[in-house]
Design goal:
405 residues, alpha/beta, TIM Barrel, eight-stranded parallel β-barrel, 14 helices, 44% helix, binds 5-hydroxymethyl-3,4-dihydroxypiperidine
């Protein structure tokens, strides 16, 4: 049995493009129409149905909810914030507060305004300036009701898919461009961190807690050769640690936001850098159960990546952890086992503020479309009906009591 602290945050996460629907001014919308296999379309119509969805979250004993504000809605054109859209998000945040849900607000969750991507997106020298303009407008409008800010969701995942693998817009395949985008994302976070704290100070509000959502993977050598071990070391540094370390060095992070899903079984075909950085085992050596996207399910990996964070001496907040599956009993096992791993890390001295499951609703899983089902709540995309899954009810018990048997 593990007892979580009384003031622990429990809930689930979503992101605007994946649930809101009709995100027509974004680079993703344009790319879906032009080049993708799947289109987000109306998604879960959460833009209109948010109150009903938050009622469900509350009924499941959540006391916290993570969502993102869509940059391309707030700034449909360069330098011209939309008062209507800012009002919409004020209503969204108020709806959370009215239901006793603590908002955790993400400012960049993979999507960019179309005008920004047409200027070169995160490769543009002025990307930081454009992002800060959005941050200033959004934080200015929401600060009296928001304490937790996540500037950028999974920067390395974004860079990896958009600038290395080339499977997300803008579909580049260049380490040089990846490096440039990473640098701009990091400096944008650092400046945004200072800007957000400045806004709160100016308004005499208690200091906010600002971070990123860092996707961490448990990297393991498939066969423990020197080459594979070196590849694991490089990925541990390049993917898991470097970005965080940079923010810590700049004192621009108040807690560590963690997204954890899986392990990566590293098998480098050669000593070439592309192999060392990207190759994974293709020989089916993994004996672990997998989700419907073929990701290994590995709760022990959560414990391991968390222990490595102890050196930062910052509180941790699990901002995403979840499984896509057609077997809901498996979802509950997944949650339970990951919570036990989290509990172990806490017993070992890690300070953890909360746990948010990904995701509240089934939703649009980027280039993979609507097939992967991550939700605590099932969505019928034809009728937009919601159905609470059994795993959600079991998780609700933990949210209520903080107790895990
Ligand atoms: O759906 C994504 C989310 O947008 C970011 N983290 C991982 C999730 C599952 O792939």
């Amino acid at each position: 049995m593990f007892q979580f602290p009384e003031d622990f945050y429990w809930g689930a996460a979503t992101s605007a493009h994946q649930v809101e629907g009709d995100n027509t001014n974004s680079d993703w919308w344009e790319w879906e129409k032009r080049a993708a296999k799947a289109s987000s379309g109306a998604a879960c119509r959460h833009y209109d149905l948010f109150r009903q969805d938050f009622d469900l979250a509350r009924s499941l004993n959540h006391n916290c909810h993570r969502l993102s504000v869509e940059w391309s809605r707030v700034m449909p054109q360069e330098g011209r914030p939309s008062a209507d859209q800012l009002r919409h998000y004020q209503e969204v945040i108020s709806a959370l507060r009215e239901r006793g849900l603590e908002p955790v607000v993400t400012l960049h969750h993979f999507t960019n305004p179309l005008w920004f991507s047409r200027k070169g997106g995160w490769l543009n020298r002025d990307s930081e300036k454009h992002f800060l303009d959005f941050v200033e407008n959004t934080v200015g409008a929401l600060c009296d009701k928001v304490r937790f800010w996540v500037t950028i969701n999974e920067p390395m995942v974004y860079v990896y898919h958009a600038y290395i693998l080339g499977v997300w817009p803008p579909q580049e395949k260049s380490f040089l461009k990846a490096r440039c985008a990473t640098g701009n994302l990091a400096s944008s976070h650092i400046k945004a961190y200072q800007l957000i704290h400045g806004i709160y100070k100016k308004k005499n509000l208690a200091p906010p807690a600002v971070s990123i959502a860092k996707n961490l993977q448990a990297f393991e050598a498939c066969i423990p050769t020197l080459k594979n071990k070196f590849a694991v070391y490089l990925r541990e540094r390049g993917f898991n640690s470097a970005f965080l370390e940079r923010l810590v060095r700049h004192k621009a992070i108040d807690f560590i936001g963690v997204n954890y899903y899986t392990r990566s079984l590293v098998e480098a075909a050669s000593w070439q850098s592309r192999s060392l950085l990207l190759d994974t085992c293709r020989k089916g050596h993994s004996r672990l159960p997998q989700n419907t996207l073929g990701w290994d399910i590995y709760p022990e990996g959560l414990y391991r990546v968390l222990l490595r964070l102890k050196r930062f001496q910052l509180p941790v907040f699990i901002l995403e952890n979840g499984i896509c599956t057609g077997d809901d009993a498996r979802r509950w096992d997944f949650i339970r086992e990951h919570l036990l791993a989290l509990g172990r890390a806490m017993q070992d001295g890690l300070q953890v503020r909360g746990y948010l499951y990904w995701s509240l609703l089934d939703n649009f899983e980027w280039d993979k479309g609507f097939d992967p089902r991550f939700g605590l709540i099932e969505v019928d995309y034809r009728t937009q009906e919601r159905r609470v899954r059994e795993s959600a009810r079991r998780f609700a018990e933990v949210c209520k009591t903080g107790k895990l048997e």
